[in-house]
Design a protein that fits this description.
Length: about 240
């Protein structure tokens, strides 16, 4: 039976935002690359543990994270790096510039629903160059239903960009972290069948065999009850 740990107010790891039973922090491997990555997160998205904008910040500590609020507008000086060309990823932008050097580019990802992204885009449209990516296939972000064909999560858009810029190793490491997060998220929601189906074609299975095995361990009923009771006392 599917369940929501968000609605029930269950305790969560302060880093990966997953319930302690499904914490994936032991598998954290940070990703470094020459590209400067910044995320503009809608304030409605900031409190959602499933946000891939949060995941980007955990996996890429050098990235920037900025919160968008219509009543507290950001200025370009707070976000834009003066020594780099700013790209704002958007489906209505121009084609990806050929021959761009990652070390000279800063990308701004808009993290929110399609409607929220349009709102943020109107605010930052004059800050930099609007760029669209050649994205194809189906989203692997099984924690949320995507809003249309060829719609992808914020972190998946970043993975497409890394591939397009000739940074496949960074993209592969980022994908492993993303897929581990999605798998654990499905498990935390009690979606065992979906989690098993997702894992069957996921690079996370080979990248984190010991952690995946630990997550898959069945806990005795008594131990599980004691664990939940102990967690509740900490609240």
């Amino acid at each position: 039976m599917a369940r929501s740990v968000v609605l029930k107010g269950a305790p969560r790891c302060h880093r990966c935002q997953l319930p302690p039973r499904w914490c994936v922090c032991a598998g954290l491997r940070t990703v470094d690359c020459a590209l400067q990555v910044d995320v503009l997160m809608h304030h409605m998205e900031a409190h959602r543990p499933s946000s891939t904008g949060h995941l980007i910040k955990r996996v890429m500590p050098q990235s920037g994270q900025h919160q968008y609020r219509i009543d507290r507008p950001l200025t370009p000086a707070e976000v834009v790096k003066p020594d780099r060309e700013l790209w704002i990823l958007h489906p209505l932008g121009e084609p990806l510039p050929a021959g761009a050097a990652p070390e000279k580019v800063q990308v701004l990802l808009l993290d929110g629903s399609w409607k929220q992204a349009l709102e943020m885009q109107r605010t930052v449209h004059s800050w930099g160059r609007h760029v669209r990516l050649p994205m194809a296939g189906e989203s692997r972000y099984w924690l949320r239903a995507q809003q249309g064909e060829r719609q992808f999560s914020t972190i998946e858009a970043l993975m497409f960009l890394l591939a397009a810029l000739g940074l496949p190793e960074a993209g592969a490491r980022l994908r492993e972290q993303f897929e581990l997060h999605v798998y654990a998220g499905l498990c935390a929601r009690g979606k065992k069948a979906a989690a098993a189906e997702f894992l069957a074609n996921s690079p996370a299975r080979a990248a984190f065999p010991e952690l995946i095995a630990k997550l898959a361990e069945k806990r005795p009923l008594v131990e599980s009850v004691r664990s939940r009771t102990a967690d509740q006392k900490k609240i």
